[in-house]
Structures are given as C-alpha cells and as structure tokens.
Amino acid sequence: MKTWLHSWRAAIRIARRDAWRSKGRSALVLAMIALPILGVSALDLTYRSSELSPAERVERSMGAADAIFRDAQVEGVPILQDPQGEMHTPAKDYKDQAWPNGRTDVTKAIPAGSTVLTDRSGPAKLTTVHGLLTTEVRELKASDPITRGITTLLSGRYPEKTDEVMATSHFLEASGLSVGSTLSARNFDRTYRIVGSYELPDALATAQVNALPGAFLAPYAKAVEKSGLPAPGTSTAYLVKKSGGFTWNTVQQINTKGVAVTSRAVLLDPPAESEVPLYAKDGWGSWDSSPGADAAELAAVATVVGLAMLEICLLAGPAFAVGARRSRRQLGLVGANGGARSHIRAIVLSGGLVIGVAAAVIGTVLAVILTLALQPVLEDVMNQRFGAFDVRPLELLGIALLAVLTGLLAAIVPAVTASRQTVLASLTGRRGVRRSSRVLPLIGLAAVLLGGAIALFGSLATESFVIVAGGSAIAELGVVAMTPALVGLFGRTGRWLPLSPRLALRDAVRNRGRTAPAVAAVLAAVAGTVAVSTFMASSEAQHRAAYEARLPYGAVSTFVMEEGGRDVPAVREAVQRHLPVDVRADVERVSVGKPGCDPWGGGGQGCGRYEVVLPKANECPLYATALPGAGDPSEKYTPDQRRKMITEDWRCSQSSGGGWVSVDGGLLVGDAKVLQVLGVDDPGAVKALAEGKIVSFSRAQIDKDGTVGIKQVTDIAAADKAMEKGLPAPGKLSSVPAYLVPEGQKSYGVQLLMTPATAKAAGLATLPAGAYFSTERMPGTEERQKLDGELAKLGSNVDLHVEQGFVNDDSLFLIALAVFAGLVTIGAAGIATGLAQADAEADLKTLAAVGAPPRVRRTLSGFQCGVVAAMGVVLGSAAGVLPAIGLRLTEEREAIGFYEEAIRQGWDNGLSGPPYVPIVIPWETLAGLLVAVPLGAALLAALVTRSRGALARRAAT
Amino acid sequence: MSAQQPVLQLQNLARVHGAGATEVHALRGIDLAVYPGELVAVMGPSGSGKSTLLTIAGGLDTPTSGRVIVEDTDITTASVKELAALRRRSIGYVFQDYNLIPALTAAENVALPRELDGTSARKARVEALKALEEMGLGHLADRFPDEMSGGQQQRVAIARALVGDRRLVLADEPTGALDSETGESVLALLRSRCDAGAAGVLVTHEPRFAAWADRVVFLRDGAIVDQTVRNDAESLLSGQVAEA
Amino acid sequence: MSIRHGLLALLERGPRYGSQLRTEFESRTGSTWPLNVGQVYTTLSRLERDGMVAQDGEDAAGHALYAITDSGRAELRAWFEKPVDRTSPARDELAIKLAMAVGAPNVDIRDVIQSQRHHTVKAMQDYTRLKAQALVTVENGGAQERDDVAWLLVLEQLIFQTEAEARWLDHCESRLIRLSATAARTTDTRTTPAAPAPAAPAPATPPAAGAR
C-alpha cells in the first residue's frame, strides 16, 4: 500500500512537471474540463444560496408573526389543509351538490390574547409617467415589528400618514416615478405621496405599493364603483402573534371554522404525512414525485452528465495521447530504470489526474468567486434575494470529483497504449505499427446492432419514447466505439487523391489513436445535432400543416372587454396610427345589464349576460345538456355509433372556422366591412346585413323558422340554478331573422354578425368591443413594438392579434444547435490537426528536403483538419438521422393511436382527419454540416498554419 | 577476488531476429561473466551484436536460447513484472544520450528507481544526494537536465545507474554524443565506480574508451572472438611487453 | 632529431650536466624513450660542435655544465614552430606485414589482424591505466605538476597513436570482409552459398578465464 503510494508520487511529479512544460496543451485540456465544472458549480452555489432554510422562508412570508390566517372561502365549514396552509378543501365530500362558496369572519377564529395585524391587498390602476399600470396595492403596516423580514426598506421611510405610501423599487422603475413623487389612480380623486421604496426579498420583480391599513383600498373601491365599474376584489390575511405559537393540532382546530392557517411552528417542524388528513383524501395525496419519476429523472441527468463527460474525454483524450507519444522516450527511460507497466500507466494517468485536479480547483474557485461577484445580477435573474451564501462542500466536492474523473478517463486509453509498448521500442523510437484493437469495433458493432434493434422495437412495437431514445443512445455509443475501424475504411478511398489530401488521409488513418477520438467527438456532436434538427424539422412540418390561421394573412384584430369598452376608441386609434391599416371594421358586442360588467356575467349586482339559443333539434346528441344524475350523454352510444355521428352528422361536426371570438355564440355587431376584412366573399351576406338580417356561419344556430334566438339573462343566480337542473335559463328572448352563409367560407371564429341597427331593433344594447383591420402589408416588428408600447400605457387588457401565418419558434434553437455542432467539430478537428502537425514535423522536414514548396505545410494542415471534420460529420449525420426517424415513427404511432381512441370515444370533432406526422430531413442544416463545416474547418486550419511551422514548434515545447 | 560470485553471467546466449529467409543471428553462443569491481568493454563492428547483448543482459529483450543470470537470478524465466523490479534494484542503464527525464531534477532522476521501488521520497532523495556527492556531482542536484551539459547528464545517469544497492551498470555508447575530453570524464567516473566495487559492461566502438576497461571483449558476427586482459601498469613502466 | 631538441629544450631552463639531463628527459617522457648517458653525451658534443650549446664551467660536485647558446635558442624555436615532418613516413612493420599477408597461402589475415588488435588494445588499456593514475596526480596538484602534465600529454599521444592503429586495423578488416564477400560472389557461383562473411574460426583464448 505504502509502496504503491510512493511510486505514484513519483509518477505525479513527472506528470506535473510535464504539464507545466507543455503549457499550451495543458491549458487547452484544462479549460475544456474546467468550464463545465465552473458552470455546474456556479449553478449549484446559486441554487443552494437561493434555496432558503425553513426559518428564512418563514421570516420572508410572515415576519415575526407566529401564523397567517386566511379565509378558506367556504362559508366557514370545516376544512382540511396541508401543513403549508397552501392547499385546503372542505372536510365534507360534496360530490354533485353545490359547494359552499362564501366568506367567513376570520377574526372569530383568532384566539384571544393574540396580536393581530391585517394584510390586505388588491389591484389598482395607478397612473404612471407613461400611462396606467395595474399594480397590487398592499395595506400592511410595514413599520410594525411583526412584519420585520417581509419587506426590506431601501430608501426613504415607512408611510406614517394616510396619504403616504411606499413602493417597490421594481414599481418605481416600471412607472418612472421616484420617492417624493405623487401617486394617483384612475377613477380615484385622492393623491398619495411616495415616501419610501422597498423590496420583497422573495419576489424582487414585483410591482407593489404599500399603504397604511384602510388608507387606499376601501376608498378606491368606493370610487371605482361610483364610476359604474365593478369594484376590484381584495384578499385579506391576518398576521397573528401569540405566545406559544400554533401547533399542528391547534391549526387543525382552527380549520374547523373554515380558516386556513400557515403556522411558523408547523413549517419549522412539519407533521408526518400520516398526520395530515388532507393527504388521505382522494386526489389530494402528497405532491411528492413518485420514486419511478425520480429514477427516470436521475437516469436522464446521469445520461446527460455521462454524455458530456464522454464528449470531453473524446476531445481531451488525443491531447493526452500525443503527450504520451511525445514523451515516449521518457517513458522508455522509466522502463529501463525499472518502471513496470503499472508505473508507465501511472505516469500517463497522472497527467489526467493533475489536469483534472487543477481543473477542479480552478473551476470551483472561479465558480465561488463568480457567484459572489455576480450575486446582485443572479438575484435579479432568480427574482429573489439569496439567504446565506450557502457553500455545500460535499456537493462542490462531488462536482470537482467529476472533473478529476473526466481527466482520468480521458487519459486511460493513452495510458494503456503507452504501457503496452515495449521498453525497447520506446527507447529506439521505433513506431511499431500497432494493430488497432479488434475487440472495440466488435463491441461497437454489437452495441449498434443491439441499440438499433431496441430502437426499432421501440418505434414499431411500442409507443415509448424512452425505449427509442435509449436504443439510439446505445447505438450511437456503438458507432463511437467503431470509429477506429470506420476511419480505417476511409483510408482505402485515398488512392486517387492528389498529394496533400492523400498524405492527410493516410496520416489520419495511420494514426488512428489520435484521429479516432477527434472523429468520435465530432460524430457525437453532429449526430446529436442532426437527430434533434431532423426531429424538429419534422415537427415543424407537422405544425405548419396543422396551423390554423386566426385571421386572413396580414389582418389584425383587437378586443378590449374591460370597463364597458371605455378604452376601445383609443385602442382602435392606436392601431390605425401605428400599423399600415387598409380597412378598419369596428365591432361591438351585445351587453346585458350595467355597462361596467364583464361580458360573461361576472362583476356582481346589476350584471347580466346573453345566450345564443341552440335549438334542441340541432344539438349533437353526444354533447347534449346533461341532466342531473344522468351521466355523460355520449355514454349511451357504442363507439361505432359515435364514430358515425362524429364523421357524418352535421350537428356534431362543427367548425369554428379556424379562429375564436371571446363572446358567447361568436356573436359580433358590425357592418359589411367586417366581412370584407375577414375575406368573406358572399354578396348575399352583405345584402342580408343591409336588410336587417343576422348573418350566420353556423347551421346549428338557426332554428326551424329561420331565426336565431338571443336570450338576455338578467338574473344570473336564477339562470345558474336552472342550468344545474338542466332547464333553460329565464330571460327575454329576441328572435332575429337569419341568413346562412353557404359552406366553404372561413369566418375565423365569427359565427353571427348583425349591424348595430339590427341589434337596436331587436332590443339589444351594445358596447364597443374592438375592431378588425386589413393591412396594406404585413406590419413590421418595429411598428408592432411601438403599438405594444402604446397599448401597454393604456393599462387595459388589450387582446391584439396580428396574423403572420405560421411562425416557427424553433428556428433560433436549430441555428444555435447547428452552430454548437459546428464549433465542436471545428474544435475537435483543430485539436486533432494541431496534434497531427506536431507529429508530422519530421515528415514535413523530409518533404521540404525533397523540394516541396512551403505552402505544402499549409495545405496539408488544412486537409488534415478537413479530413477529421468530414469523417466525423459524415458518420455523425448517418448516426443522427436514424434515431430521429425512429422517434418520429413512434410519434406517428402514438398520434394514430390517440386519434383512433378519440373517434371511438366521440371526443374529437373529426375534422382534423387522421394525424399527419411527416418525416422531414433538414437538408439545409445537413448541407451546412456536411459541406460548410469541414470546408470552414479546413480553411481555418490552413489560415492559422504558418508556412514555417510556428504552431508545431509551440505545440512541441 | 576470483572466488567472488559474478554479478552478471551470460551462458550460451543466442538471439535470432526474424525467421526463415530473413533470419538473422544477432548473437550465437555467448558466454561471459562480469565480476564485482570489473569493467568489461564490448567492441566490435556495427552489426556484431553489441547492443543486443546489452539489452538482453538488462532484460529489455529476451534471448532465443541460453541463460542470463544477474546476482543469482535467472532473468530469462522472469516475468515482465519481475524484470521491471530487477531493473529497479539490480541493473542500471546508461544510454548514448537523453538519459534523464526532462521533467525531473538531477537528484529526482537519481532517486527515481528507488521511488518507483516504493522508498519514501525523502529517503530516496537522501540516497540520491549521497550518490551524487560520492561522484562529485553534488552541485548538480537541483538542476534540470536542460540546465546541464551533456557530460554532466551522462555522469548523473551513471549515478542513477548505481544508486541504492545496484551494482551492475550497462552502458551503451555512453560517450557517443560527447567530445573526447568530456567523454573521458564520463569514463573516468565509470572506472572509479568499478574500482569501488561495481560491475560494468560498456559497449563502444571507440578503442580509446574501451581501453578504460579491465577486459575488452571482441565481438564478431554475434560471437566472442577474442578478449584482452589488462597488464599491471607497472610492467609497462619497466619496459616489458606483456602478453595475456 | 628529437633527442637533440629535447636536450635543447631542457637546457633553455638553465645550465645542466649530462646525467641530470638524462633524468629530467626521462621524467618528462615517462621513460617511454629510455636514454643512456652515452647517448646524452654524444648528442651534447654534436650540439657543441654545431655551436648550439657551450661548456659553462662546473658545478660544486665537479660536473661539467652545458648552457644553450643563441643559435641553439633559434634552432629550438624553429623546431617548435615547424610541424613534424611527414614526407618520409617511418617504415611501419605492421603495414608491411599486412601487405605481405594478403594473398599469402595458409594465412588467415583476419587472425593476423585480430592478434595485432589484441596487442594494440591491450597496450592502450595499459596506457590508459597509467593515464588514469596520472590524472589523479594532476588533479591532486603535486609539486611536480609541470612534469606530470607533460607525462600525461606523452601518454595521451601514445594512446591516440595506438588508437589510430586500432582503427586502421578495424578498417582493414571490414575492407577485407567486403572484398572477400565480393570475391566469393563472383567466383563461387556454382558452390553452395557460403556465409556472407568468411567463417570466423577465431580460436582466441577461452572467454572469462578467471578474470584478473
């Protein structure tokens, strides 16, 4: 044991000095290993530092309080909750009965003798320098010691008077306001002075304004209601401080009053899962991931780490191989002085060890320094302040060990090769023509066959992604193992090449130990890229085929449903001003009740809604209104009947026409210009509009007598009750004569259209909803950005859509991937070339001696680089296309299976037809990889090689 | 002295390279014994088998037939591992040039065989320094090979060949890359080490350097054809001509 | 001749008498050229006749002292400056012997060469042994340093001369091997192919005969 240690020490010393002597090569390998380690360590540090301890988390959520009490909104019936107080449900099982929904008085649940602080918040539209900004206003007495830790005061002071507020730094930045500015809100005549700025350590990017309790929300709600709009909802929590705190038992007692509690004591010492009744309830099980998912995740992480390490080893391996080759005489001397094979191995392995350890130390130290230095930036990105700077030595050590392991792994093959050389051969420098191992290619072939079989089985017999991907990965590793043999095959093609490429090819093939790893590195990177890009190109083709335009190409639509359409004119103006609008078609919507209500019947007292009546005879039997206790109506039919209905019954095969309008029944109020913008070419429809008819694109909505019924529901509560019983809602019905547009006209979601005059005649009130625009040309990005900026200033929720046709979101990713593969290729080929250059110095001298012109050095190195790149790219492309095809086949099987199932069950409208899962080879990417990358690599190598071998000299020292 | 055990014994040694038409008899029937305190020079024209003899004697190559005995161990039957151990403990090599590992200082180079053998770094260094000191090379201890002259490197190599318990030096043209005067200093050191009890085998084609040996063995076509034994120096002074 | 000039060189350091000159000469040349007193006095009288030395009184013990003259100094300087004359090579018995051995019946010229080489190398070994001793003395820096260095140079001259002889023998041997190989190819075409070089019977001494 001790003996072993001593001889290793000698080996490490030699390796250390050698590494120092060839600084360039060492630095290159070191960087390759250290960079990923740096990244992963920094990630770990950031993650660990941002991950708070329970105590830190408690402090940020409840300050110094012992618990937060919240209304469970279940009318005070007993509830069950999880230990965090985040999830809760009534203790009783309601099934089909009406669920309790209403407030309870939380203060009654608070034990006597506790200190209570209310924490109320709600949204408000605040005026900013640029316009309006919907912001959360929070009424929490931040100066109270109980809240310490929830907010951090950055500048100024806490508000002390009712007309004073403070705001988060994020809000100040977004609004353009500053400490000392006056703050006001829309529909609200009071003004406030900002006296301080603060931040929420757990959510830095939150726009929030803090006011004294009662100073803002209540008067604001009153003012908003006065202007005819629904008052914004508020939510209230109570920070409770009580000596002794709240145990899990106490929490459960309080739960009986319909109040959810987040308790400090419970958070710090959570109860066992068995003690949480909520988890025992159906569907409320603990959200911990299953062990199977954990294993799958672990396997995925291990695969990624393993592949990354393999890639690094493949890139770094040749460097060690050349190091061993160059110091062959030295290794021979060690042998002559009694170094056994194990010693020789130890010396070369020590090279990997030394570099690995250096990379680990440098990577880890840099990671700590970088994370510390970039802490503010990282906190902004993570959107939260770090807790303590958390260095986990064991985790960092583990990551660092990966670096050491990578270094060692990269040096293994060169070490074994070097130790197999006889001492005599090493000393005399005879280059014994080493037969490349025959075992490795055989193992590789076996792996290719096995992996291929698994992938084939996966894609043909199962629908499992994992099997196909796993099989492909095995097959790819097999190809990597076969690389030396495949490289040998390339050598045979060299006979009829001119001198320089022939020399380069022969050299590459003869020195397989150096070429193969570089080719394998390129192969792995290219195969991955080709696989992903083939897969993505195929998906893109599929998505393009499946894309449904929401509007005619180039058209624009905009809708504002808030505040009774108050901002609609401004929005229409803005669109017209910023975009190259050709025709503008304003549209309105039918409204029932107060104008400020939201269009779907929410918003409280005085609000109503309308319904487009679907005549009973036109209902698809599968989707008929369910009667209480009758179950799903579609279950009455056999799968065959369902399929028949879906594919043949017109009542069931309804098309929305490729778009969607967010009003009931797709009913809009507008003139013929709407038809023009939507590209509906039907003179009959224009005529019908003018005649005061309602134009319908949906046959089902038209009753037997040729009218469309529109019902105004004013009592929403009564309507909901009727619905539950399967009865029609009470309300005034207006029947409007209808005109059915012939089939084949795309209406982009509009199903019913009538003029304002028709609506008025039918006794329907309307409100501005938005507009459709046709454009002279496709709006540019700059125009869109300007418009977006302007709309944002309005502070309203504007739904703007510009139809640009199918836009491929993945193209950037594909390009990035191709660039990455290109870089790896050039890097690997470059390394191999540098090494080949250093090796070929003697050959080049001979060449020069027999009269070769100096540029031969240049062309030779270019071809050497190109040869490695080309071999890797060709093999990689072949190895990459196949798994992608396998994956696509799996997807197709899956899609077809899903489609058939959908038809059988009667889910699908049957219009999309059988799934279209094409396989598309990304020829542009492939061509770029196959031609441009090797060419670029060759040119680059030729360019950086001087005709006098400076590069080689540097590499040799 | 003749009662002493030889340090190196070659018995009926033969080595054939290749087979069939390309068969070359590099060595045939070599018998040679080297005793402690003796320096034996092997001379012969190129291709006579000098270097092969030396590599076989050191276990770097294996004979086709015959036996090589180093300090009672028959190395022809030893495993690769045992041979390596033997080179660490019994046999020192000195080659024509580049004998030293560039990454190690002189002292570390000398200490290398001991360290490989598992001696602690400190003890190995002490031994190495002692060996260097004995040979008047103490001032070179902390220099790297590229900071030394060729002669200095060769002398450090001799020191390494004889560090610890090693008593057999196999030197293959150790002066080949040196000028006459420097070569002499290397030979003088080798001579003095043998006078101090080591055994040495020196392969050279320069009679002037072979003349430092106690015995000169002439090799021709793989066989020993003749050998000289040195006279007493005094007999020469007295003007007599002595024959072996 | 060299004894003449040797005596002149000794006399240049001051007057000396006959037997004193002989002793100094021998100590300088390491008795490789043994002189007798008669030779010394004959040479001295010739030098006196040529006006290169002159009698210069007697010392306390009554030995006749000789001193170098100006013309003697000029002769000595000329001798030092002039390269050794190589126009009339000394007749070398070895060269004549080898020349005769080529083509002589019943004589294996390789044996002739080897036995001569044996002799030559052995002589070299002995010279080298002496040289090694001299080196030690010189490095230890004795009182007679000057004489020791001179002795060392003489020894090395002998070593290099014998080396030249040994190398010439090596050369002769390989030349003969090559020639006989060519001869064997041209004449022995019909006989069975012989070994590339003539067989080496080489009786020689039994190897490792008890060392020294």
UniProtKB/TrEMBL annotation, chain B:
The keyword Iron-sulfur does not apply. CDD domains: ABC_MJ0796_LolCDE_FtsE (cd03255). Keywords: ATP-binding, Nucleotide-binding, Transport. PROSITE patterns: ABC_TRANSPORTER_1 (PS00211), ABC_TRANSPORTER_2 (PS50893). Residues 8-241 form the ABC transporter domain. The keyword Nucleotide-binding applies. It comes from the Bacteria. One of its GO terms (molecular function) is ATP binding. Signal peptide: none annotated. It holds the Pfam family ABC_tran. InterPro entries: AAA+_ATPase, ABC_transporter-like_ATP-bd, ABC_transporter-like_CS, ABC_transpr_LolD-like, MacB-like_ATP-bd, P-loop_NTPase. Coiled coil: none annotated. This is ABC transporter ATP-binding protein. It comes from Streptomyces exfoliatus (Streptomyces hydrogenans). The lineage of its organism: Bacteria, Bacillati, Actinomycetota, Actinomycetes, Kitasatosporales.
